[in-house]
Amino acid sequence: MEHILLSCPFVWRLWSNIEKWWGLQWVIPGSVNGVLRWWSRCRMKTLEKKIWTVIPLPILWSIWTHRNESVFQGIQPNSDELCDIVKVRVAKWIKSSEMDVVFSATDLVYNMQQMQYCIRNGG
Is 29's pLDDT higher than 80? Predict the structure, then answer.
């Protein structure tokens, strides 16, 4: 499970790209529980933290479904496409939640760092 969800090179690139999308660099923990614990301990402002806590679940879900599509339907793995799918899923999950997020789904997908700047600086 750890290999499929975290450490295979294809999946590791996905996690790294999502961290970069958020404006971070990291060393991935060795277990899914470790990732979830690390994720929950990051300190951020309230809205930013709410958005942040959503991200790991769409990543894990997307990895699992992409793997199944590759294995059972013969779909070629594509890390760029999967990264885009994850970003869209994150945006959809956030917009469909009860969070009071004024940013559009497009902003969440394409302007994450600018959105974070606005949250951090009250803009």
Answer: yes
Q: What pLDDT does residue 43 have?
A: 83
Burial of 9 (0-12, 13-18, 19+ CB in 10 A): exposed
| Beta-carbon count within 10 A of 114 CB | 12
Global pTM value: 0.86
Residue range 85-110: mean pLDDT, rounded: 90
Encoded tokens for 117: 């700047």
d(CA 44, CA 97): 19
Tell the burial category of 115 from Cβ atoms under 10 Å away from its Cβ (0-12, 13-18, 19+).
Answer: buried
Q: 99 and 45 in contact (C-beta within 8 Å)?
A: no
User: Which residue is it, tokens 């990051």?
Assistant: 42
